[in-house]
User: What shape does this take?
Amino acid sequence: MSDYFLSIKKLKLVPFMVLFTSCIENAPMDSLSPEGPYARTIDNLFWLTFWIAVGIFFLVQTVLIVAVIIFRDKPNNPEPKQIHGNTKLELLWTVIPVLILVAIAIPTVKTIFELAKEPENALKVEVVGHQWWFEFKYPQYGITTANVLIIPEDKPVRLEMWSNDVMHNFWVPKLNGKRYLVPGQLTYLNLYADNAGEYWAQCGEFCGLSHSKMRARVISLNSSDFKMWVENEQKEARRPEEGTLAAEGEQVYLNAGCTQCHIINGVWDVQGDRVAPNLTHMASRHVLGGASFKNNPTDLTKWLSNPAAIKPGTFMPNLELTEDEIVALIEYLGTLK
Amino acid sequence: MSKSLQGKKILTVFKRPSSSEGILSWITTVDHKRIGIMYGYAAFFFLLFGGLEALLLRIQLAKPDNDFLSAAEYNAMFTMHGTTMVFLAIMPISAAFFNYLLPLQIGARDVAFPRLNALSYWIWIFGGVFLYSTFIFGTAGAPVGGYLAEEISWLGNAPNGGWFGYQPNASFKYSPGTAMDYWAIGLQILGISSLISAFNFITTILNMRTKGMRLMRMPVFTWMTFAVAFLLAFSLPIIAIALFFVTFDRQFGTTFFLTEGGGDPVLWQHLFWLFGHPEVYILILPAFGIVSEILPTFSRKPLFGYAAIVFAGFGIAFIGFGVWAHHMFASAISPVAQAGFGISTMVIAVPTGVKIFNWLGTIWGGKISLKTPMLFALGFIAMFVIGGLSGVTHSVVPADTQQTDTYYVVAHFHYVLFGGAIFGIFAGLYYWFPKVWGKMYNETLGQLHFWLMIIGFNLTFGPMHWLGLQGQIRRTWVYAEETNLGFWNLIVTIGAFIIALSIIIFMINWSYSRRKGPAALMDPWDARTIEWTIPSPTPVWNFSTPPEVENLDDFWHKKYGEDSEGRAVRRDTADQLLIDLEEDGLNPKNHIELPNPSYFPFILASGLPLLGYAIIYKSIALAGLGVLLLLIGGFGWALEPIEEVTIANPSVSNGGVEDE
Amino acid sequence: MSDHDYPHEPTGVETRKLGMWIFLSTEILFFGTLITTYLIFKGRTFDGIKLEEVYDIPFTSVSSFVLLMSSLTMVLAHNAIEKSDQERANIWLLATASLGAVFLAGQIYEFTEFYHKGFTLTVNIYGSTFYVLTGFHGAHVFIGVVLLVILWGVGKRQEGLSLDGGMNLEFIALYWHFVDIVWIVLFTVVYLI
Assistant: This one.
């Protein structure tokens, strides 16, 4: 009978066993595989606390299970001693946790201030949260983009962030923890990647209907690539050649109402007062729509045909474009490298 | 035998209601036991709704980019799931326990203010119905200026700003329609109910204890009730103000949380969590109390460290007011604030740990009987400690900036609220079942319920730990295929359905055993506290004669002495004592005065939802009707006479609940 | 309850009075939150009309004095009922209610003046916080006046308040004094500082 219960009680350990073996491979949003110094500092602190927690977990569960096994009610067992407490034990199990927590608290507080500091020589980038996309501005270079945050490999980046509407947050798990974007206030986050590469980001703060589709990519480029990117971004938009499909597309862009909200530098300015992603170099971005779909003709067609079907609540109206108009428009947009 | 009214002129025309059976007897009851039963059933009903909402969420999340629910429906479902579980399930089930047990555990006839007690219930149920009427009347929509591809179904026309309603997303501009007004006003009504209960219970514990029931002789469940009442009393006014601000912003044009007028949305976060954090201790402390009763009974030894557990409970309650911004570590607060709240959050782990160790000390060296209440109590310890430890990882602020707003947090709070509070509640439901109904539940079904539930629970919430750390954000309607989160999400969904199955088994056990279960003894568990010294089911008058208490665990001391080794030895007088108690309990010899029933709590409470509708639909007529009901209720209440003394009829037991 | 065998109130405080004290302590948090919110926003700079531009301290001081006097008459009413002087108690009750009503009238006049000068509920955050804070206080005064009038009416009908009614007077008095104290804090924080 007790063997049966022994094995049943062991079932309680199963979830924990699973924990060890269950880490997801290749999760692009994995905070447990840091790829930058800030994320790594956090990671180290987490694992320190985690293993202490595991130790306490094992202690408690073992005492629980052993007690239930040894002290099971058997008919011939005597009545138990009516112990009311033990002051020494009380002190022990108050003081020891305090000491453990102090051991965790000291590096915690240190790290809080360390991570909040503005890094030396950092590139300042402004992040503006919108429902449901991220806008990135580089005041030093006069660049405004969206969805894809390009950062240099050779220096840290200081993000200065706020929101245009509701609470959002910006989270690049492989590079750092997340921080809110607040309307009317500024918040800050540091980013620095070990190597050139692409890192996934997402808005973690519930912000309405398309919250789960508010994503971004952070791409770290080596210094020469970064310089090239900056120079390209600073240029005005390319004009398509006369008579091409792209030129037709440009006409569609002008007449369908896109200019109410979107800017194409040097060519089309915003006519209305709503801010939408700057499209000047959108063809160089591989994800669109708050990084919720890829920049390819199929996905872009779906988007242009019915934006609200992809992102419920979107502020982009259905422009009722015909299939031909969409084809031409996509051709035009594809020239905006 | 009417009592003379001492020359007072009669001020009203209505006599007090006098029915003891039928619907009217339930509507007019002020009996704490009946009120407890009503809370319990209604809350369980809402628990099922909350569970259904959760299952819908899990079906949607079972695979990436799923389209089972639309975004609008998903947002409504997770908002209602959270709101329902917190305010309409766990809090009122705790209220059911407080109501039924508190007077019994302190040896009283009823609470200090019985009509106020009934008022609390009616306000609560009207508030819950008001909130859920959103599915019929409420409207939701895209933020002003946004577009939708399809109309929002009835399932989506419900509050959709999260149970925490962050501003400005929950303001009118971003959540147009009436759904979020149902949320704000509904919560306001529910808050009033709990606030009234709070000072009722505080007064009861202070002033209604029986002879010899000194504070340090009270059962731990009573102590936890006391702590919860203080938490409610001091946290609810804060959320009441915050909710007024929300309603005024949405309906009357103020700008408390809107930057356009100089307001501050972060203020909402502070006010909400100033309430919200004590709220989570309100949710868990009753379970702490229940488990502290069950472990000693089923180990046949006293609670280890009674004083430590009591003081730790109050320590947790007190410090609980000082940790609120740990919900805001990633928000706009300074590093100094982060450090301060990180430390206070670590501090609160200490009394929590003290309690856990004392519970282990209770069972160690005992004679452990693994009946269903004990299984759930042990399961509580096992699951709560996991939730508590993940909470400690949250207190490490930099790590929390990775964990917050992900499924890791969802795992944490479900381990403490489900693995903790709900397991504790089930433990209590099985434990006191025989006392309330006079019948015994089926032990085999109880065990089946436990094992299915603990397996399903861990399958559901265990994987959420790594899902969160590896990228799944909260409140996410869909997740992309490339995030590689699909497999474990499917496991989680399967676990959720196993939980649902276990609850069905519980419901079958409960309803069958209530009617056809074997008759239960007065003291089926050989328990320690005085609520077990009265017949099962509880007679309407509770105690025939007010008990006199000489010890902590007084009942146990009357049954058992100790030998030289300190082991319990059953007294010779114990068996006769039980017989006498039961005999005495069923046949009161003394004159007993019970509080009179009243119509007016019901009437007064009915005015509040009307006021709610009046605000939403800008209807003077409804407002007038609501105020009228409040006035009739109030005046009637103040002026109704204390009429003929109700002599308890010995043939009617359990507050008149024979069968319905 | 009223079983003779039950010990009478281990705390020594009558149960309903104890209940009122606890209720009032929750009200401290209620008004505390409102006042804190007011102070938070007062410290910020936002363009727009502010209270300082429209208020009239002398007027509000008189109004405050009236409310303070009503606390005095409340004490006198309580004193009278302790001495079983029913007539006096009734008179002082009516006086308290009247003074409370005068205070409310003053508030209404004041607010109308503010509205005419452009300081409205919805104009900006200063308007919002001011009116909600003082409005809730005013609502509490109003409820107090209503309770006092009812008590006065019951006293008149029964030709005096019984002992039980005397207890009712005591805890309505507690409520009334509380509302007055809140006003003193409010007046200081909002108008004077």
In short: The domain at 2-21+28-73+84-116 of chain A is CATH 1.10.287.90 (Helix Hairpins). Chain A has three domains: 2-21+28-73+84-116, 123-234, 245-333. Chain A touches chain B through 107 residues (CB under 8 Å). The mean pLDDT of chain A is 92.
